[in-house]
Amino acid sequence: MSTTDITSATSLVADREQVFIGGRWADSSGEDWIDVIDPWTEQRAARVRAATAEDVAKAVAAARASFDAGVWAAKTMAERADVLDEIADRLELRVAELTAIGVLEVGIPVAVSGPTQQMTAGLFRAVAAQAREFEVREDRPRADGGVSRILREPNGVVAAIIPWNGPIGTISFKVAPALAAGCSVVLKGAPDAPLSPAVFADVIAELVAEGRIPEGVVSVLIADREVSETLVTDPDVDHVTFTGSTSAGRRIAALAADRIARVSLELGGKSAAIILDDADLGHVMQSLPMGGCLQSGQACIALTRVLVSRARHDEVVAALAAAYSALPIGNPWEPTNFLGPLAGQRHLDRVLGYIAAAEAEGATVVVGGGRPDGLDHGYFVAPTLIDGVRNDMRVAQEEVFGPVVSVITYEDEDDAVAIANDSVYGLSGAVYTEDLDRGYALAQRIRTGTISVNGSVIDFTLPFGGYKQSGLGREGGAEGLAEFFEVKTVHMPAPVR
């Protein structure tokens, strides 16, 4: 797929005048629009119809009716897995369009957006493969001679709420396992990135029209926070799965608690990369610079706290400064660039505010800190390395969500562990050392859901999620699929002798 193919795919990006309810495009009950602002040109790229509370209620009612009718849930796991593979095939046919949308919505450079969109199809296939192996019934003998049958049943109507920074990928984390389990889904996209979910809705519409997915099973809506809360509080929603900020996750959990609804949350991170004294700096530089600035830092798993001993502080800072200064940033349509603009002006102002706050608290900006030279438009922040950071500073404790990396000095290994764990978050992390046994032992001491030794591994086919305020539950693998089942125990009597 060439850059020309992707650029030409922008012609497919058009205004979306309707909302997607129960497998069909339909007129909204409201007349509000959501503007999609291209973060490179700072101009409007498209408009999408905003869903109303009434639209949400219709979508939930359709999901409830479809689930209660049992047509989708009654299919075997293998049959539903086949449909997931079909979704993957059709998403692959739209990779050029989705890649262009990734650039237009979030500012993801085309060199990064393409593989990301391609990954989505692979994740649907991975869930399909997992579903074919997943056991929904297990018989266990009892001491009294009887048998208890353990059943895993779909947990009902799922509200899947996805973020703006990785919309199409997050759909695969939530909708794929929910559909595999036999649930009905109301997908709610973020107003900042509404075009990717619309393309997914086009795929579902085709499969509904062909009779592969029953009507009512899938709805896709874009709505603001106030309308979205009506989805979370709807009594016909059995499970809310959310990816986004910890503050929003906290609100969702509070709303769902009123009726004890099931909640899965994948939230923020402030992940630490611990560089031990025996680490090979060449190995560190192979992954850490991009690990901290992945998607211009707009990633919950970014390694934004670099922990280094006093003995190696100067050489590590010098190496990181050189690496961050050399990262190619600019026009996201240029395939040689790996960093693009931030998603919007409000987000840009927020990131710059964190940098200013760090300086005010006594830290030092080594490289970056503002707009890159030569870029007079677009919401850009240069890759920024901040030294002299204490772990109690805002820039070390709060999720910046930009290309901002803090260097924190530790005294010894125990101190490094204490600093890494001194956070409300626990999502990702890394340990760099030439002694793999030592790295593994240290990884076990870090309170985080995912951690890599000598790298920054990203594999969403494996369990992914966080400790502490980074979330509840897991996505990926058998663990992610299991989130969408209830467990029922049926006690059968001992046979009559």
UniProtKB/TrEMBL annotation:
This protein's UniProt keywords:
Oxidoreductase
**Which PROSITE patterns does the record match to this protein?**
ALDEHYDE_DEHYDR_GLU (PS00687)
Residues annotated as domain Aldehyde dehydrogenase? 25-490
Family membership: Belongs to the aldehyde dehydrogenase family.
Native source species: Nocardia bovistercoris
Return the InterPro entries for the record: Ald_DH/histidinol_DH, Ald_DH_C, Ald_DH_CS_GLU, Ald_DH_N, Aldehyde_DH_dom
PANTHER family documented for this protein = ALDEHYDE DEHYDROGENASE, ALDEHYDE DEHYDROGENASE-RELATED
Q: Which residues form the active site?
A: E266
Q: What is this protein called?
A: Aldehyde dehydrogenase
Which superkingdom does the taxonomy of this entry point to? Bacteria
Give this protein's Gene Ontology molecular function annotations: oxidoreductase activity, acting on the aldehyde or oxo group of donors, NAD or NADP as acceptor
